[in-house]
Amino acid sequence: MPFTGHVGPVRAVAAELVARGHQVRVHTGSRCAAPFTALGARVLPWTAAPDFDEDDLTATFPALAGLRGPRQLLGNLEHVFLRTGAGQLEDLRAAWEQEPWDVVLGESTSTGAPLAAEATGTPWASLSLVPLSLPSRDLPPPGLGLRPWPGPVGRARDAALGAVTGLASRGLQRAWQETRVAAGLPGPAGPVMQLWLSPHLVMATGVPSVEHRRSDLPPQVHFVGRVQAPPPAAAGPLGLPPWWPDVEGADVPVVHVTQGTYNTDPDDLLRPALEALAGEDVLVVAATGSAARSELPFPVPANARVTGLLPYDELLPRTAAVVTNGGWGGVLATLAAGVPLVVAGGDLDKPEAARRVAASGAGVDLRTGSPRPAAVGRAVREVLHEPRYREAAARVAAQLADRGGQREVVDLLERLVATGRPVLRAAPDPWA
Q1: Low-confidence residues of the chain: pLDDT under 70
Q2: CATH level 2 (architecture), domain 244-401
Q3: CATH number for the segment(s) 4-228+405-419
Q4: Do domains 4-228+405-419 and 244-401 have the same CATH topology?
Q5: DSSP secondary structure, 163-214, as one string
Q6: How far apart are CA 207 and CA 132, in angstroms?
Q7: How far is CA 208 from the centre of its chain?
Q8: What global pTM score does this model have?
Q9: Exposure check for the chain: N or C terminus, fewer CB within 10 A?
């Protein structure tokens, strides 16, 4: 899908495939083409599928105007992800007729991947770039951002929630069925919440220590760690801002604040975080989430520095804590560096990320995407001064270091192509 946060990890996988001599075609929006063509991959731009701008979704999908929270999640799922599927398949069918492929890899919000695999009869794999969103008898319904409750009380709660969310998702199920009809595929649609679950291979970014334990994890699901996005070759690495020596020479803790690259209204998190930390003995490094915007529309405290984007390989080793909206790629990058987090997850998959961070012990979940300054300040002081958070982050970092990331993704893909059969885990219980 043509979102900045999705392109980076997929580019890492494409780079590994190209390095091993494979031919790679990438179906994505035209704004995302350059990082892939720079690798030597061919880009199939969204043509029949609407080539939208992630910074102005309502221009292409007017039904999304004014939606926030759960309504935004449902609206995005229906209009951006599901109903674009028929157009995605039309593009992919044309590419297949020109030159068939051996395997389809779809990141887990791509409806085109399972449709194309069904239409062409080829095996397909799914790469989850968000917290594993797979229904389980042991967990509350995905998307609600709730912690699991053990025992009969938890099962009763989850059953009740499942009934409610089932009613709420009827519109999504209808959209999924209508998409299949528009795509010219026969038969009824399966459950919409499992459309991305490949029967052959599912690769989940992350590790078991930041994923809720479940007894019914399908055997073709593998945790692959962090798929690390390399810097775009065409543009070179992200530049460092002129105030970077302040970070290198800081004699106080460096706290990074980010709202990611989507839903970046600075009033949600950047403003309350900078206000909360203005009187603290820290250096605040804030990122707006856009390379074109290196300033904020409000006064910045003296102990804060602001830029658009920053290279995490330079920043995170110098960072004591990260305040984030919960984008999964940034969360995993932070944990891979052994840095604790304060997570303000307000919409889409962000609450799920926040709950997982808190459950791992590596951070604090603020339980809202627009926290009050006092709550941010308390949480940052807690993760800075309580050693247990950094210790938990270090444990997750060690587990992430044991996984292969994009190398493991390509190893598993090669096994799928070689055998044509589902690629199953060696260990049935990854939490054992």
Answers
A1: 229-238
A2: 3-Layer(aba) Sandwich (3.40)
A3: 3.40.50.2000
A4: yes
A5: HHHHHHTHHHHHHHHHHHHHHT--S----GGGTT--SSEEEEEB-GGGS---
A6: 10
A7: 16
A8: 0.91
A9: C
